[in-house]
Write a structure and sequence with these properties.
The protein contains 16 helices and 17 strands.
Length: 415
């Protein structure tokens, strides 16, 4: 069984939202690579009672406690004295630490002040972990069958101490095993519908392989996490489980691992030697931005017409003025005309078009904010689909672009 860890981030600035806690995110990734499970992440302020309570609770539930922040020389930096109090020990002066600080300051042509020198005072029961890029050393404690590690909150200092001093020690100390994550990426199906579809398969997963649903930005990722003694064995088990479930979910799966939908679309168009153009109204070029974010997209993407006004829809894309008058710019006939028009004008195999009401204004009872029409056109067919997105403007624009990409995927060929 893998060791369990808790990350405690200390600092009022984290609670105020003035500083983003990137340390905990980075440490979680690194610990996962060492098959150490992050059981909990805790954020607390610069308060002695809060720190003492957090340490006590963490000791009761995990094997490793990683602490960042509060190791500076000023009065609001409480971590060192609070750790000494927690373990019931005195603070002691370390000449080697002072020499390291003096050397570091000398390189920068600076003098060590009395306040800086206090950073050489550490709890007497700690093992010092050298900080090669800063003045506050890391501290390693092993008390009551629990490892406690305290590090500076400055990200590059923490990363240096973790990489060079902490992770190798943790690797030697705790039982090794493997933890393997495999991501299956789906689009066009909700989390609850996907859960219903694969319920029988999920209920029969082996105990050492867990499934998590990760909905994000109009997509749902399925994460299979397997643990065991040998990586290839775990990978093979997960591959077999994927083969079992793919017939049920194949039409929703666009990729695996780090695959991005826009990259998959590009590979698909390249493989079939097809070209694409887009016509966008409410998305204002966001779809084209996603497509052209992929290196090499010029091989299959000819360009885009940002038909934000009705004059561009009629003048550049050939949409009938009468159709817009009768049915409105957000309608099936208009979006189909946009898709056919951009494909014709840019001489491509495929045209895709989006028109809608992104808000916050412009909605009506018949066509509320979030109403979006998307059309697909190629040499054999032209059709459109209506969507009703119900969140804010940014959400509507992003979801519309994803839905358009998925429409290409489904009509050019799954995956």
């Amino acid at each position: 069984m893998s060791a369990k860890a808790e990350i405690i981030s200390i600092g009022d600035e984290l609670l105020y939202g003035q500083t983003l806690d990137t340390n905990a995110h980075w440490m979680s990734i690194k610990l996962d690579e060492y098959n150490i499970k992050v059981f909990q992440r805790t954020t607390i302020g610069d308060d002695e009672d809060q720190i003492l309570n957090a340490l006590k609770l963490a000791e009761e539930r995990v094997d490793i406690v990683l602490i960042t922040g509060g190791l500076g020389p000023t009065k609001d930096d409480l971590t060192k004295p609070v750790l000494a109090k927690y373990f019931g020990v005195n603070m002691v002066h370390h000449e080697k630490v002072l020499r390291d600080i003096t050397l570091l300051f000398a390189k920068a042509s600076r003098e060590v002040t009395a306040l800086n020198a206090q950073q050489a005072n550490l709890p007497e029961n700690c093992e010092i972990i050298t900080n090669p890029v800063g003045t506050a050393p890391g501290m390693w404690f092993y008390e009551k069958n629990t490892v406690f590690v305290a590090m500076p909150g400055v990200p590059y200092e923490m990363k240096s101490i973790m990489t060079q001093g902490i992770l190798p020690k943790l690797d030697k100390m705790f039982t090794k095993g493997v933890l393997h994550h495999h991501i299956i990426k789906t689009i066009g199906i909700t989390e609850s519908s996907l859960s219903d579809l694969i319920e029988d398969w999920e209920l029969n997963l082996p105990q050492h392989i867990k499934l998590a649903y990760l909905p994000t930005k109009g997509q749902v990722k399925l994460r299979l996490t397997g643990s065991g003694d040998e990586l290839n064995t775990v990978k093979q088990e997960i591959e077999e489980l994927q083969k079992e479930i793919m017939p049920k979910i194949d039409k929703y799966v666009y990729g695996f691992g780090a695959d991005q939908l826009e990259e998959v679309i590009g590979q698909l168009l390249n493989k079939k030697n097809l070209t694409l153009a887009t016509a966008e109204s409410c998305t204002g070029g966001y779809l084209a931005h996603m497509i052209t974010s992929v290196p090499g997209s010029s091989r299959y993407f000819k360009g885009s017409v940002i038909a934000y006004s009705n004059e561009v829809k009629t003048g550049q894309l050939g949409v009938s003025t009468e159709t817009i008058k009768q049915q409105g710019a957000v309608s099936e006939k208009v979006v189909k005309g946009m898709a056919k028009g951009v494909s014709r004008e840019l001489n491509t195999d495929i045209g895709i078009a989006i028109t809608g009401i992104a808000g916050p204004d412009g909605g009506t009872i018949e066509k509320p904010v979030g109403t979006v029409w998307i059309a697909y056109s190629d040499k054999n067919k032209t059709f459109a689909k209506k969507f009703n997105f119900s969140r804010d403007r940014t959400f509507i624009i992003h979801w519309s672009a994803l839905a358009a990409l998925n429409m290409i995927r489904l009509n050019v060929g799954v995956k």
